[in-house]
Amino acid sequence: MNLWEFLLHNRAEVFRLSMEHLFLVGLSTGIAIVIGVPLGILLTRWPRLSKPVLGFANIMQTVPSLALFGFLIPLNIYLFHVRIIGGIGARTAIVALVLYALLPIIRNTFTGINSVDPAIREAGRGIGMTDRQLLFQVEVPLALGVIVAGVRVATVISVGTATIAAAIDAGGLGRYIFRGLRMNDNTLILAGAVPAALMALVADFLLGWVEKLFATGVSGWLRNRKVALGALLLALTAGGVWFATMFQQQGTAGRVVVGSKDFTEQIILGELLSQVIETRAGLPVTRRFDLGGNLAHEALVAGELDAYVEYTGTAFTAILKQRTVTDPKEVYRRVKEEYATRFDVEWTEPLGFNNTFAILVRGEDARRYRLKTISDAAKYASKWRAGFGQDFMSRPDGYQGFARAYGLKFMELREMDLSLTYRALVEKQVDLIAGNSTDGLITRYDLVRLVDDRRYFPPYDAVPVIRREILQKYPVLRDALKSLGGLISVEEMRQLNFQVDGEHRAAKEVVDEFLKKKGLKDSVGRVVTTGP
Amino acid sequence: MAAVDQKAIEFRAVSYRIAGGRALLYGLDLEIKKGETLVLLGRSGCGKTTTLKLINRLLDPSEGLVLVENKATTQWDPIRLRRHVGYVIQEIGLFPHFTIEENVGVVPRLEGWEEERIRSRVRELLSLVGLEAEKFASRYPRELSGGQRQRVGVARAVAADPPIMLLDEPFGALDPITRSEIQQEFRSLQEKLGKTMVFVTHDLREAFLLASRIGLLKDGRLVFLGQPRDLLDSDDPEARAFTRSFQDPAKILNSP
Fold first, then answer.
1. Do A10 and A185 meet the contact criterion of CB atoms below 8 Å apart?
2. Does the distance separating the beta carbons of A122 and B95 come in below 8 Å?
3. Residue A130, SS3 per DSSP
C-alpha cells in the first residue's frame, strides 16, 4: 500500500491522530506562552533572575524526553483537587512539551524587550509613563515581533517533539511513526511524519505571517482594551480545556489498567493480558500501551498501571540492579520476592517463553564464515560494524558486559533505534546486531542467531506483573492470570510477532485468534469455563 | 515683571557622578526664570544632557538640589514631574508603533483626557507646528521626513500644555536647510507659547537665534552664563573657542 492509499483508507484515524497531535501542541504552546511571556517580562525587571531562570529553561531543553517522562510520571501535583502533573497520558506529555517550549519563549520575550531602542524607552520615561505604561504601551508592542518569533520556534519544535508523546500513551501522530519503526514499515512511518511535517510548515507559515504583522509595528489594535480582553479570555479558555482534560483522565476508577512497553511483542502481550482479563475476569480494561524505555515500570510503581508483562532478566538487572544470574528459576524467585517487598507488585505465572537478546548476523555471512556461536564471530569483530539499540547500549546486561564477556572490539559501533537495527543489518550498513529471540523478522530476513556460548545473557522469561492492591480488590484476576501460565512457546511467540510485524495484522485480531485456538475464548468471545 | 522674575528651575550646588565615581557635573548653580529660554551650549560630553535629565528626574543629583517650581525634584513624584515638563529628544523619540495622532496625544491620554478633547488638541497642535492634520494624523513616524518628525516631537511635548519644556538637540539630525527653516518656525512658536524652555545644543548659531540667555558648559562646569551678546565679549577660553568657530562664510573663504 502506498502512502496516499494508506492515508485515504485510514483517513478517520489519520484525522483523529492529527487532532490529538494538534491538541498536544496547541495546548502546550498556549500554556508555555501564559507562563513564558510574563516570566520573560519579569526577568527584564529583575535582570538578576535572568541567569538562573534562562539556565533552568536551557537545561530543560537538553533533558531527553524519556528521562523527563520518567521523572514526571511518579509526581503527584494537584491544583484544586485536579492532578496537573504526573501519571501517563496527555497530561505528562503536555507538561513535558511546555517545559521544552519555555526556553524560546522566555528568551525571546526577554531579549525582545531588552532590545527596544533605549532612546524610545527614555522618551517614554521622559514624557511621564509609569513603568507599567511603558511596558504595555511601548516595550511589549515593540517586542511583539520578536516574542512571536519565539512562539513560532517553540511551536515548530513542539510539533516534532509531540511525536514522542506516543511513548506515554498520549496519542498523536507519533503512534504511526513508532508503529512503523517497529514493523519496518515505511508507509506507516511516513503516514505519521508527513502530516506532522505539514503541520509544522503550516504553523511556521501562519506564525511567520503574524510575526511580520507585528514586526512592522502595525499593532495599534493590540492596545485596544477589547482585543486585550479577548486574548485573555482565549488564554483562560485554553487553561480551562486543559483542566477539563485532566478531569477526564481521572476516569479509570473501576477499570483495570493494562500497559505495555513499546515493541510489537509487548503490544501483543498487553492485548493478551487485556483480553484475558476482559473475558475471563469480566472486568473492563483500559489499555495504556506503547510506553517507552522503563516507563511501564515507573507507571506501575506509581499506581498508574495495574499490570503489564515484564521479563525476569530485565527486572533483575535493569530495575533491581543485580548482577547477572543465569539460572532462570533463581532469577524468577528473586524478582518475585524483591518486587513483593519493594513495590507491592506480584509476579504471576511465567508465560512459557524466554525472549533473550539474539545476537544476529546475515545468513550469507554465517554460512560463508561457518559461524555458530558468538565466540566464532569474535575474531571477525575488528572488521565488522555493529548496530545496537539505545536500550542495549545502556542497560547493565547490555553492550558493555557483553563486549567484555566475549572480548569484542568492533571496527565501528552504531547506536540507533532497535527497530532500525534490522534494516541496517539487511542493508549491510552494519554486520551484527542484538535483536530479540522472539522477533518475527529473524526468519523473514534470513538472519542467523549466534549461540550465547558463554551464557552471558540472563534468562528473560516473560511474566505478567500486577499490583497486589488490584489483586486484592478483584480476586477473580488471579485465576484469569493463572490460565496464562506456560501458554506460549518461543516458536508461538515468534509467529505471533510475525503476524503483526510481517503480515501487518492488528494485534487485537491476532490475539483473539490465538486465545480461541488455545481454548481460552469460545468462537463468540465468551468465557470458556475450565475445570468442573 | 514679577512673573518673569519668578524662578521656574533652580540648581543649587549640583554634582552628578556615575556609578564608577567619575563626575559628569560639578557644583552647578543655575537659576532659570519663568518664561525664558535658556540655551545650554557645549561640546559633546560636557554635561548638557545630564543637566537636562536632572530636571525631569531621569537622573537624581549626587549632591546638591534641583528645584522645579521651588520644590526639590526628589520631593516630586517623578511621573507627575515628567508630565509637568515637556521633553523633546533627537528625532528618535517618537514611538514607531503609534500613529502621528497617537504620538501627539500620548500624554493627554495618560492624563486621562476625553477622546474628543484629545482629538481636537492633536489637530490644533499639528496645525501649530505646520502639519496638516488630515494628511498626517493616521500616518506612522517612518512615513514622515526628518523635519516633519521633529515637528511632531515638539507637538507631543507641548500637548498637555506643560509650563516647562526641555529640548535636547531637537534639530540635531536635520539637514542644514530644513534645520534653519524649523529654527525660524520654532522661534515664532516660542513667542506664541511663552513657556520656560531649556534648550541643549552644540550649535552656536542656534543658540544665538533662540536663547534669551546662554549657559556654556565645559567638562561638567558652567564656564559662562549670560546674554548671547556677552558671550562674544567673554574672555573664557572655551567661550573664545566657540565664538571663533562662529564666523561668516565669507571670512572662511578669505582666510589664508
1. no
2. no
3. coil
Q: How far apart are CA A488 and CA A503, in angstroms?
A: 20
User: Distance between CA A354 and CA A335 in Å, rounded?
Assistant: 15
Chosen from A116, A127, A131 to mutate, greatest number of chain B CBs within 10 A: A127
- Angstrom distances, CA of residue A149 to CA of A162, A215, A228: 20, 10, 20
- Nine-digit cell at A52? 538562573
Whole-angstrom Cα distance, residue A129 to residue A121? 10
Smallest CA–CA distance from B54 into chain A, residue: A126
Which residues in chain A have their CB less than 8 angstroms from residue B107's CB? Answer: 127-128
- Ranked by mean pLDDT, the top range of A202-216, A374-388, B168-182 is A374-388
List Cβ<8 Å contacts ≥24 apart for A500-506: A500/A183, A500/A264, A500/A267, A500/A268, A500/A440, A501/A182, A501/A183, A501/A184, A501/A264, A501/A439, A501/A440, A501/A441, A501/A444, A502/A440, A502/A441, A502/A444, A504/A183, A504/A185
- Interatomic CA distance for residues A262 and A65, integer angstroms: 15
Q: Distance, in angstroms, between B58 CA and closest chain A CA?
A: 7
pLDDT recorded at residue A243: 59
Candidate from B58, B84, B92 with C-beta closest to A126: B58
Provide the 3-class DSSP secondary structure of residue A287: strand
Quote the minimal CA–CA distance from B78 to chain A in Å: 7
B15 - beta bridge partners?
B63
C-alpha cell at B173: 539630525
B253 CB contacts (<8 Å, ≥6 apart)? none
Output DSSP code: residue A165: G
Chain A residues within 8 A of B95 when measuring between CB atoms: 120, 123-124, 137-138, 142
CA distance A313 to B13: 85
The predicted structure's pLDDT at residue A531: 40
Grade residue A398 by pLDDT with cuts at 50, 70 and 90.
confident
Q: Which of residues 120-149 of A touch B (CB under 8 A)?
A: 120, 122-130, 133, 137-138, 141-142
In chain A, residues 335-374 whose CB comes closer than 8 Å to chain B: none
Neighbours of A308 (CB within 10 A): 24
Contact between chains at A217 and B140 (C-beta distance less than 8 A): yes
CA-based Rg of chain A, rounded to a whole angstrom? 27
pTM score: 0.71
The stretches of B31-76 forming alpha helices (DSSP H) are: 48-55
Under DSSP, is residue A455 helix (H, G, I), strand (E, B) or coil? coil
CB atoms within 10 A of CB A252: 16
CB contacts under 8 A, B 81-120 vs A, are 81-84, 86-87, 89-90, 92-99, 102, 106-107, 110
Task: Please give, rounded to a whole number of angstroms, the shortest distance from the CA of A123 to a CA of chain B.
Answer: 5
* pLDDT, mean of residues B57-78: 91
Contact assessment for residue A467 and residue A310, using Cβ atoms and an 8 Å cutoff:
no
Higher pLDDT, B19 or A115: A115
Q: What is the pLDDT of residue A491?
A: 87
Burial of B116: CB neighbours in 10 Å, binned 0-12, 13-18, 19+ = exposed
Q: Is residue A519 a contact partner of residue A468, using CB atoms and an 8 Å limit? A: no
Q: Do B82 and A125 touch (CB under 8 A)?
A: yes
Phi, psi of A225 (to 5 degrees): -60, -40
